[in-house]
Amino acid sequence: MAKKGKSIQAIRGMNDILPEQTPVWQWLEGTVRELLQGYGYREIRMPVLEKTELFKRSIGEVTDIVEKEMYTFEDRNGDSLTLRPEGTAGCVRAGIEHGLLYNQIQRLWYLGPMFRHERPQKGRYRQFHQIGVEAFGMPGPDIDAELILLSARLWRALGLEGVRLELNSLGSPEARAAYRQRLVDYLQAHREQLDEDSLRRLHSNPLRILDSKNPEMQALIEAAPQLAEHLDAASQEHFEQLRARLDMAGIDYRINPRLVRGLDYYSRTVFEWVTDRLGAQGTVCAGGRYDGLVEYLGGRPTPAVGFALGIERLIALLEAQGATPPAPAPHAYLVLVGDQAQPAGQVLAERLRDALPGLRLLVNCGGGSFKGQFKRADRSGAALALILGEDELAAGLLAIKPLRGEGEQCHVTEQEALDRLRSLLDAEQQNLLGAR
Ligand code: HAM
User: Does residue 292 have its Cβ closer than 6 Å to ligand 1?
Assistant: First the structure.
């Protein structure tokens, strides 16, 4: 081992998720998993590292992500690799590579860390986590609607409040190209009002200028030609049908003509679920249709649509409204006093676990006095303390003491202890069912 030195800190913008926080993550992930399964989506897991070329081609050379935010490096073979800044590109790459897409319908999802070298602030990190959902092979608005309905159901399942849906259509690539030219002409004519960022984007990515937050440019943007007026007929029809479906299902939304998204692969439908409760980083979930991407990445033409939600932002929002469930406490803590009680107690605990699947039982390890162990039992949040000392061991009994609420300590047989634990588990199950 090298010499002792100063302690090493995590990389800025990359967070440890500590044991107090993991129950919320697991609850959220479990809820999403169950819900997606209910809609027939299957999980796919891709590497976190891909060839840089994949992201350049899919996300677009002149996007913030590719220009400024990717963690790109050369590996030992001299290949340029990038830590994935998002999951869609890798999912499409994997789908093409394994023949999952051509002439098929696929409903896929993934979960995992993404990496962007952004300026860290609340809700914006350099390593963050997304749950992404991607659907392939379905060209119509039915699947766009399914994804939106599914996300709305997820908010209900999580008890999430205060998110609203923003919707737009970017039209076909051809209609967008024609519109792009109109927009460039308009912006050219007002060149003197453009800020530095917009001047840079004028020819590379003019639609993103509409997304500018610079207050001095708002009047110019306000008066710019609107994409909605330049949609092709088929995209218009697609959008109208999607809206009709959302109306029928009672989903509220707002058409936001400025919603253009920060990645280049979108066409037609784009949407974001946003909140005002997280400050500047208010988008918790975003996505849209990307019918051209599969072909662009070397596959056969395949319509596709998807979204990704930011887990950190979702959890921040849930925490802000106090909607996260508490971590489940142990049902019991086994206090073991004496040299023989310790190994005997560990074997007893295994018998209890065999008899009661789902039992959360903490066995005292690391020794300690009776008093010290009782303190640990109390701190663990357990409902019951089970006590095995030399006397109990000799008598073939256990002592049992409720740690929450009323109840005296008493001696019981192993079978009686099992019955007590079973009724605790049953009561918990009933509560869970009641809560649903
Ligand atoms: P995106 O809008 O770049 O889209 O990211 C989706 C979500 O990830 C955002 O709405 C946000 O909640 C979260 N997110 C993004 N960057 C950060 C960050 N630095 N820190 C914390 N959370 C962040 C995509 O990534 C597309 N792949 C979505 C998609 C899937 N479109 C079609 N399929």
Answer: no
